[in-house]
Amino acid sequence: MKTLTVDLDSPVPVYEQIRAQVAALVSLGSLNPGDRLPSSRELARDLGVAVGTVQRAYRELEAAGAVSSRPRTGTVVTAPTHRRSSVADQRSFADLATQMVVRGRELGLDDSAILDVVTGLLQKPVGAPRTDDLR
Predict the structure, then answer these.
(1) Cα(102)–Cα(98) distance, integer angstroms
(2) Which of 78-81's residues contact partners 24+ apart within 8 Å by CB, and which partners?
C-alpha cells in the first residue's frame, strides 16, 4: 500500500485524513478488492497516532462498504467507494484536481483554504449560481 501521511496540525481530524486517503486509493484503483490493509496497530505505529484513531478510520471505511474487517483476516478492500465512474475517469478527475491545487497554491492559498473552497462548492446544488452571479 502506498504510504499514508497525516498532518497533526491540520484542522481535519486524523481519522478522517486516514479514511480519505484510503478511500482515494480505493477509488483510483491503487487498492483493489482483496488487498489487505495494514493492521490498526501497525498503521498507528507507522503514523505515530493512537490505535483507536486508525480503528475509527477503518470503521468509517467499513460503513461505506469500501473495506471489510474480520478477526484473523484483518481489513480487506471490498469494493471501490464510488462505482459510477471508471478508474480512468477518476484518474482524469484527479489530474484536474491536482491542477486546481497547484493553481490555488500559486495564488497563495494554503491547503485549508483550498479545502474550504472545494467543500463550499460541494455543498451547493449542481448548477447553482455563483455568489458573484447574484449581484
Answers:
(1) 6
(2) 78/33, 79/26, 79/33, 80/26, 80/27, 80/29, 81/23, 81/26, 81/27
> What's the gap between Cα 20 and its chain centre?
2
pLDDT of residue 135: 44
Tell me which H or E stretch contains 26: helix 14-27
Q: What is the mean pLDDT of the chain?
A: 84
Cα 132 to the chain's mean position, in Å? 30
Q: How confident is the model at residue 134 (pLDDT cuts 50, 70, 90)?
A: very low
Helix/strand number for the chain, H first, E second: 5, 2
The three-class DSSP label of residue 75 is strand
pLDDT for the residue 80? 57
